[in-house]
Amino acid sequence: MKKEVNIAIIGAGASGLMLAALLEEKNILIIDKNSKVGSKILVSGGGKCNITNGKVKSNNYLGNQRFIRNIIKRFDQNDLLSWFGERGLKLIVRKNNQYFCENSAKEVIDILKREIPSDTIELQSEVIKVEKKSDIFEITTSKGKVLAQKVVVASGGLSFPILGASPIGYDIAKSFNHEVHTLSAGLVGFTVQPEQFFFKTLSGIAIDVKITIENKDLKKEVKGALLFAHKGISGPAVLDASLYWQKGKVSIDFLPTLSIDSLKLSKKT
Ligand SMILES: Cc1cc2nc3c(=O)[nH]c(=O)nc-3n(C[C@H](O)[C@H](O)[C@H](O)COP(=O)(O)OP(=O)(O)OC[C@H]3O[C@@H](n4cnc5c(N)ncnc54)[C@H](O)[C@@H]3O)c2cc1C
C-alpha cells in the first residue's frame, strides 16, 4: 500500500530530525535505512556532541556566502542553544566557545525524539529513488512507495557508511538535473610521501604549527596543533587544512612564532 504525506524527509540524522522537530506541519514521514535515528549524532564530539560554537560566521563555511549568511540570520547558534536549553539540555563550554553535552550526545537525540511523533518515523527503509509524477513526488523505498507533496533530502554526506551514509542525496540531485560539485574529503588527516616517512618515528608528538594551503584560486593559513601519526599527520590544524586542500601544495611552518630574521639574530648573539 502506498503511503501519502505532505512532507517526506529522507534521513533521520541531525538535519532531518531537527527539521521534523521544528516543522508545524505534522503530516510528515521521516524515512531512514538505519534501525535507529541519529547514529552520527551519537558518535559526534567523542560521544558528547560538540553541538555548536559561540563564534559561528558565514566565512567559517565553504560555499555560497550569501546563501550561508541567510541561513545563519534565520537560525543562529544562540537560537540553537535557547531551543535545546528550554528542553533541558545541559551543556559545558570548552575553550571559551565550544559547546559540548555535559553528559552524553544521546540526550540530544532524546530531546529530538520527544519533539517528533514516533509514528512519523519509518526506520530500516532504504530510499532507492525519487521521481516527480505530475505534482507529486513518488519515493521508492525498500518497504514500498511513499507519495509526498514535498520532499526534503537530508541523507547526509558520504563519510562513515557504517553509520548509514550513502550517495542517495547526490543521486537524487543528479536525477533532477542539479549540478553536483566534485566531492572531496574534509576534516581528515593527511598521509605523507616517502620522503616524509621519517614522520612515523615522531608518532604521538603534537606541536603548534602554521599550515599554508595554496590552491589555484585560494590561499589559506591555518594555525593550531599538528599531531604526528603512524601514517601521516593529523590534529586540529591538519583536519582544518584538509577542508581547503585540493591536490595543491601544503607548507608547514614548524616554528610559527619565530621569523627567519629573529633566528638569524639569535645565531649571532
Ligand atoms: C566521528 C564524527 C564526529 C563528529 N563530531 C561532530 C561534532 O562534535 N559536532 C558537529 O557539529 N558535527 C560533528 N560531526 C559531523 C556531524 O555528525 C554531521 O555533520 C551531521 O551528523 C550531519 O547530519 P546530517 O543529518 O546531514 O547527516 P547524517 O547524520 O549522516 O544523517 C543522514 C541519515 O540519512 C540516512 N540515509 C542515508 N542514505 C539513505 C537512504 N538511501 N535511505 C534512507 N536513509 C538514508 C542515514 O542512515 C542517516 O541516518 C561528526 C561526525 C563524525 C563522523
Layout of strands and helices, then pairs:
Elements: E1 3-10, H1 14-22, E2 28-31, H2 39-43, E3 50-53, H3 65-74, H4 77-86, E4 91-94, E5 98-101, H5 106-115, E6 121-122, E7 127-133, E8 136-141, E9 144-153, H6 168-175, E10 190-191, E11 206-214, E12 219-229, E13 232-234, H7 236-242, E14 249-253, H8 260-268
Parallel strand pairs: 1-2, 1-9, 2-6
Antiparallel strand pairs: 3-5, 4-5, 7-8, 8-9, 10-13, 11-12, 11-14, 12-13
Q: What are the bound molecules? A: flavin-adenine dinucleotide
Alpha-beta classification: alpha+beta
Unreliable spans are none
H/E series: EHEHEHHEEHEEEEHEEEEHEH
How many helices? The count is 8
Mean pLDDT: 94
Tell me about the biggest sheet? Answer: 6 strands, mixed
Strand content: 25-35%
Termini separation (Å)? 85 Å
Query: Overall 3D geometry?
Result: elongated
Strand arrangement in the largest pleated sheet: 6-2-1-9-8-7
Number of strands: 14
Q: Rg from C-alpha positions?
A: 22 Å
Helix content: 25-40%
Give structural notes.
With about 270 residues, this protein is an alpha+beta fold. Helices cover about 25% and strands about 30% of the residues. It is built from eight helices and 14 strands. A six-stranded mixed sheet has the order 6-2-1-9-8-7. A five-stranded antiparallel sheet has the order 10-13-12-11-14, covered by helices on one side. A hairpin with a 4-residue loop joins strand 11 (about 205-215) and strand 12 (about 220-230). The longest helix has 10 residues, at about 65-75. The radius of gyration is 22 Å and the shape is elongated. The mean pLDDT is about 95. Flavin-adenine dinucleotide binds near residues 13, 43 and 156.
